[in-house]
């Protein structure tokens, strides 16, 4: 999960819109799966997703 979050951050920093969107979608799926299995709390998952979405919005790479 943390690796997928790092990939989103790196994709946002490179500025490649397609790579950013693909990495974001993959990270959201992995975060949701992790939360549904009880590995992380659902609010923690929401916080991760929110922070990634805000980062994408700030760079203009909205998904």
Please explain how this structure is put together.
It is a single chain. This protein is mostly helical. The protein has one domain (2-59). The protein is built from 3 helices and no strands. The model has no long low-confidence stretch (mean pLDDT 93).
Helix segment tally: 3
Tell me how many strands there are.
0
Query: What's the overall average pLDDT, rounded?
Result: 93
State the helicity in percent bands: over 70%
The computed structural class is: mainly alpha
Distance between the termini: 19 Å
- How much strand content do the residues show? under 5%
The domain tally reads: 1
| Rg (CA only) | 11 Å
Topology:
Layout lengths: L1 H13 L2 H20 L5 H18 L4
Helix pairs in contact: 1-2, 1-3, 2-3
Entry keywords:
3 helices
Brief summary:
With 63 residues, this protein is mostly helical.
């Amino acid at each position: 999960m943390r690796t997928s979050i790092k990939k989103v951050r790196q994709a946002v920093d490179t500025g490649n819109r397609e790579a950013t969107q693909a990495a974001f979608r993959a990270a959201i799926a992995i975060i949701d799966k992790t939360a549904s299995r009880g590995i992380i709390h659902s609010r923690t998952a929401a916080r991760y997703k929110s922070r990634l979405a805000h980062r994408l919005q700030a760079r203009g790479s909205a998904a």
